[in-house]
Amino acid sequence: RVMQAAVKRLETRVRAMEGQGVRGDRRSAELAGLAQALTEEQRSLLIRLDRLEEQLHMGGGGLHHQQWQDESLAVGEDCLRRVQRLEKEQRATALNLRLVISVTEEAQQNQT
């Protein structure tokens, strides 16, 4: 009876650990997807900024030069703020991902 109770407790712990591993894997995949989305948005903003700078060097595409510079500066500052925000979010996501991976690995090691 003692042996059966011990086996049941062990089985319960194993099921709990397996559940944590599945949740960790799910969260890890979610964070990886978020990191990928942030990277793509950052890449898109950088391409847009490069195009704006290119247009500035080509004379502003019909706008008066001063007006173009003002608009370009405003857009550039907005892009810079967005890129900085994305970089901050990407760092936080990477940190969370490392934490989830660490917890998942630890849970897997505890299962063995």
Outline the structure in words.
By secondary structure, the chain is mainly α. It is 92% helix and 0% strand. α1 (2-57) runs antiparallel to α2 (65-111). The model has no long low-confidence stretch (mean pLDDT 76).
The oligomeric state is single chain
* Percent of residues in β-strands: under 5%
Q: Main β-sheet, in a few words? A: none
Count of runs of 4 or more consecutive helical residues: 2
Low-pLDDT sequence parts: none
> Averaged pLDDT, please?
76
Q: Which structural category fits the helices and strands?
A: mainly alpha
How many distinct beta strands? 0
* Helix/strand order, N-terminal first: HH
The value of Rg in angstroms is 25 Å
Task: Estimate the global geometry from the Cα principal axes.
Answer: rod-shaped
Give the N-to-C terminal Cα separation: 25 Å
Helical fraction = over 70%
Q: What topology does this entry show?
A:
Elements: H1 2-57, H2 65-111
Helix pairs in contact: 1-2
